[in-house]
Structure prediction request, 262 residues.
Amino acid sequence: MDKLNSIVNVDAYPINDLSRPESLEVIARAKQQLKLTGACHFGGFLSEAGLVNLLAEAQALESSAHASDNWYTPYYGRPDSSYPVGHPFNSAVHFSVRYVSRTLLPEESPLRYLFEDSRLLSFLHALLPDEPLYRYSDARGSLNYTVMAQGDELGWHFDACELVASILLRPAEAGGTFQYIPAVRTADDERFSAVASVLGGQDHHRTNVDFAPGDMVLFRGRHSLHRVTQIQGETPRLIALMSFDNVEKAVERNVPDDLLPA
Prediction:
């Protein structure tokens, strides 16, 4: 049996055959969502067995997760007091999360298999046909499970790579909502005033993503601010993350050693 078929719900998302009418419909719909909002939502992307197996792997590796609990700017830097108070380069948000990085995943890992399967990359490239797209090569940030427990959160930030696929495996009892504001900055304009406004609490135009275990959300976070709200309750939130970029080799972005790009 094709291992991909045991991980992905190929009946709903036939990424193993992009010529099928069902695939073309999924691609057309997702392309439109990405264009309009910078995100798209694939409900029930994992098969039942895929969800069971990825969740089991994440739980088995949970105790090995690397902890990060610090305050950084939305660009992963330390606040710089040479900038005015309130400037994004002199503002800090809370990053509190644990990561199981790619280096800890066994060769037979179902998440590793999915990430390295050329059919997933072909599917994602079909959504962004006018851009180059590669698996993110950073050993820490390319592929991981994230663990967020009571009090953990990720403040407003931008991603270090072009596209991130997030698959929810287990929600928290409360909190842990993924929120984003699309196109806050551009490649040519950092729009610091808009970023400062969001950091100052003017975030009423944010979008909440409501996804269930097995759902996948694709998100273009390099130019869109996003965060994960504080976790509440005894059950940690588990997410599988796969990252992709438009350059073949990861560019050094000065991400702190204790924090993976997310």
Q: What stands out?
A: The two ends are 33 Å apart (CA to CA). The first helix runs from residue 3 to 7. The domain at 3-245 is CATH 2.60.120.620 (Jelly Rolls). The chain has a mean pLDDT of 94.
